[in-house]
């Protein structure tokens, strides 16, 4: 129960003036002074309790009253709660809203004055809570700047007058109560505004901190994404991730553990940041190391096996890990490929305190990115292996296809060696056979290089008219059987930088396709022409055959596309396209009135044109219309005969009987200075 009493500042004794006007002036002066004190306190103090205590104390002095109580309305709970009073501190009081006096003040927003003897005093809400009897009371609403009632200001028991009689509250008391109620409402509004402002500022500051942290996290993730995109392996990925993550979380070290399915072990990538010495500007380089472990070893074994996060603070008993300083605190996140664990990512030894929830959140984000990067890297490696194996299969098919030319030439020269008695001729045939074995060796090296992931073109300076002469010589026997004439045309002394063996294979495929297409027609002719187009070398292969059917032209250069050939594999043009593209060039089908025409363009392949093939540096260029014309009717070329199925004697008689002179101008003598790889260089 609350104890009623009189405050220390109550006015005792009679008024200082005996006349009514004197008493009124003194009262007004006291009211004005009290209002000035309250107004000054409102501007100087932000403590609501202090302000309300001042208002209630001044209220009991001015009215005068034994007790002043301020009630604030709790709209959510529908009750009045006392906030402060001018007496004992055994508050607060909680009065539910109902039909009482204070509830009526809240509902109507009007003041109530209860004189002595009023029946409502007996049923007043506060009466049971006070030890003394309430003889008179006055209550007025507290309204904010929106005129909404936010509470009630109550004064009870006006003090005795000079004659010892107890008086009722009058209109002057109501006016004083109303003025001070407004001051109390202003103090409450200011306090609530201040509390709201502080809360909003705190929320804004928290939001700013969160935004700054999110921006930092996004910047880190962006940098990691950019770094991992250029990583050449797991070690490059680990180095970038660990160093950036350790700096972002101010950790002393970091650890990345990744599974190695090939060795059925885990690879440990460890990073330890250097400690800045006194007076040192900047941080020294971090120490990075790698090691091996099994799935059941190390502090991260449970993280990997159970796919659960880990957070430990072991300052009293630090952990010992190979290659790392003693670990006093650690947080770790598992890495997964979506189906099974692939490792774990951990931060070690937080500097300046324990790891926070923000550190763990950032670690979780980075772990997800690392899991994705590792999964994509592993998938890319597997895809490259599959593509390489598939490419080896396609390459083997192409090599088997291209074996026709060297095997045919070798067979023809072997048969000529059997029937030839001239030692010089046999040496010439043997040299040609060795040349074809070199071509077979080049095919083998190409397959091995591709299996190792190498697609390098072995380019060197080549004299084009000699290259075409080699094509002529190698294809002579094969074309003789099909009654096909091969003509070649090249500018004299034209030199280009290319892989001669592959370009010869490409030309052989085009010539062979043309010959096979013309064979059902009884034969025909094929022309290979080399020209210059700016810095590009062009090779045009045309024939007098039936041409390319319109139905297959859109997919002409795809593998296994063939038409009109009994034994065609559909690989010839695909091989041509691949070889030309490896040189950075292009091949296309040209529109001609008769037959078919393929144009090979090799940009920047041209080295120089020179009138004298034995000189690298020329004094003047040959006229544009000067060309070396080579035409062979292959049916009359003895240098590359077709394989004969007759006996040696019959073949010898046939070879002796046929002695048709060649229709080719002899090739120029070999240059005195051998051209080597590199444009314009001589050895």
List the helices and strands and how they pair.
Blueprint: H1 20-44, H2 48-62, E1 65-74, E2 79-85, E3 94-96, H3 101-108, E4 112-114, H4 119-122, E5 137-143, E6 149-158, H5 171-229, H6 234-248, E7 251-260, E8 265-272, E9 287-293, H7 301-306, E10 310-313, E11 329-336, E12 341-350, H8 357-402, H9 404-419, H10 423-451, E13 460-463, H11 464-481, E14 484-490, E15 494-498, H12 500-518, E16 524-533, E17 536-543, H13 572-582, E18 586-590, E19 597-602, E20 606-609, E21 628-632, H14 648-657
Parallel strand pairs: 14-16
Antiparallel strand pairs: 1-2, 1-6, 2-3, 4-5, 5-6, 7-8, 7-12, 8-9, 10-11, 11-12, 13-15, 14-21, 15-20, 16-17, 17-19, 18-19
Helix pairs in contact: 1-2, 1-5, 2-5, 5-6, 5-8, 6-8, 8-10, 9-10, 9-11, 9-14, 11-12, 12-13
Give structural notes.
The chain is α+β, with helices and mostly antiparallel strands. The chain folds into three domains: 20-195, Beta-Lactamase; 231-275 and 285-381, GAF domain (Beta-Lactamase, 2-Layer Sandwich); 457-657, Histidine kinase-like ATPase, C-terminal domain (Heat Shock Protein 90, 2-Layer Sandwich). It has helices spanning 20-44, 48-62, 101-108, 119-122, 171-229, 234-248, 301-306, 357-402, 404-419, 423-451, 464-481, 500-518, 572-582, 648-657, and strands at 65-74, 79-85, 94-96, 112-114, 137-143, 149-158, 251-260, 265-272, 287-293, 310-313, 329-336, 341-350, 460-463, 484-490, 494-498, 524-533, 536-543, 586-590, 597-602, 606-609, 628-632. It has a six-stranded antiparallel β-sheet with strand order 3-2-1-6-5-4, sandwiched between helices. It has a six-stranded antiparallel β-sheet with strand order 9-8-7-12-11-10. It has a six-stranded mixed β-sheet with strand order 18-19-17-16-14-21, with helices on one face. Helix 2 runs antiparallel to helix 5 (171-229), helix 6 packs antiparallel against helix 8 (357-402) and helix 8 packs antiparallel against helix 10.
């Amino acid at each position: 129960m609350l104890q009623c009493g009189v405050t220390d500042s109550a006015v005792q004794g009679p008024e200082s003036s005996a006349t009514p006007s004197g008493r009124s002036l003194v009262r007004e002066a006291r009211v004005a002074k009290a209002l000035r004190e309250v107004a000054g306190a409102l501007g100087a103090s932000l403590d609501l309790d202090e302000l309300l205590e001042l208002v209630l104390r001044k209220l009991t002095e001015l009215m005068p009253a034994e007790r002043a109580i301020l009630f604030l309305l709790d709209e959510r709970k529908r009750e009045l709660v006392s906030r402060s009073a001018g007496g004992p501190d055994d508050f607060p009081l909680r009065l539910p809203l109902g039909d009482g006096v204070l509830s009526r003040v809240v509902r109507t927003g009007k003041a109530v004055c209860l004189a002595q003897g009023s029946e409502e005093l007996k049923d007043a809400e506060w009466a049971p809570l006070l030890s003394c009897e309430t003889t008179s009371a006055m209550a007025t609403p507290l309204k904010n700047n929106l005129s909404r009632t936010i509470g009630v200001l109550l004064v009870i028991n006006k003090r005795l007058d000079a004659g010892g009689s107890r008086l009722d509250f009058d209109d002057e008391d109501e006016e004083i109560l109303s003025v001070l109620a407004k001051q109390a409402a202003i103090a409450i509004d200011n306090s609530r505004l201040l509390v709201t402002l502080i809360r909003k500022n705190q929320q804004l500051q928290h939001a700013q901190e969160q935004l700054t942290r999110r921006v930092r996290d996004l910047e880190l993730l962006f940098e990691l994404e950019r770094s991992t995109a250029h990583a050449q392996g797991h070690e490059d990925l680990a180095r970038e991730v660990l160093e950036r993550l350790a700096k972002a979380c101010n950790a002393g070290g970091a650890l990345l553990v990744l599974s190695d399915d090939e060795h059925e072990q885990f690879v440990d990538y460890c990073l330890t940041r250097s400690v800045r010495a006194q007076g040192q500007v900047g941080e020294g380089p971090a120490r990075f190391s790698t090691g091996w472990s099994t799935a059941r070893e190390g502090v991260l074994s449970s993280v990997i096996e159970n796919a659960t996060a880990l957070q430990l603070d072991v300052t009293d008993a630090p952990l010992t890990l190979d290659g790392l300083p003693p670990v006093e605190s650690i947080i770790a996140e598992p890495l997964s490929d979506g189906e099974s664990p692939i490792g774990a990512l951990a931060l070690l030894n937080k500097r300046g305190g324990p790891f926070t929830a923000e550190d763990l959140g950032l670690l979780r984000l980075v772990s997800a990115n690392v899991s994705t990067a590792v999964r994509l890297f592993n998938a890319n490696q597997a895809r490259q292996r599959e593509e390489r194996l598939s490419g080896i299969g396609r390459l083997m098919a192409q090599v088997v296809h291209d074996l026709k030319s060297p095997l045919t030439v070798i067979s023809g020269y072997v048969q000529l060696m059997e029937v030839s008695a001239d030692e010089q001729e046999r040496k010439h045939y043997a040299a040609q056979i060795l040349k074809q074995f070199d071509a077979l060796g080049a095919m083998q090296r190409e397959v091995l290089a591709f299996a190792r992931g190498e697609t390098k073109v072995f380019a060197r300076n080549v004299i084009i008219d000699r290259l075409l002469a080699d094509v002529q010589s190698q294809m002579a026997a094969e074309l003789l059987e099909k009654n096909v004439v091969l003509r070649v045309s090249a500018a004299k002394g034209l030199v280009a930088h290319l892989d001669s063996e592959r370009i010869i294979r490409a030309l052989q495929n085009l010539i062979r396709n043309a010959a096979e297409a013309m064979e059902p027609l009884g034969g025909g002719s094929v022309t290979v022409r080399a020209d210059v187009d700016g810095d590009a070398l062009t090779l045009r292969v045309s024939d007098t055959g039936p041409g390319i059917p319109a139905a297959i032209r859109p997919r002409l250069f795809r593998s296994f596309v063939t038409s009109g050939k009994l034994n065609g594999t559909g690989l010839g043009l695909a091989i041509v396209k691949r070889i030309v593209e490896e040189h950075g060039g292009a091949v296309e089908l040209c529109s001609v009135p008769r037959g078919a025409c393929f144009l090979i363009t090799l940009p920047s392949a041209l080295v120089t044109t020179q009138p004298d093939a034995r000189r690298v540096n020329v004094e003047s260029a040959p006229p544009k219309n000067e060309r070396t014309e080579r035409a062979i009717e292959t049916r009359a070329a003895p240098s590359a005969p077709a394989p004969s199925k007759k006996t040696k004697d019959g073949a010898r008689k046939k070879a002796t009987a046929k002695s048709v002179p060649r229709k080719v101008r002899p090739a120029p003598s070999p240059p005195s200075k051998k051209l080597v790889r590199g444009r314009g260089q001589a050895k």
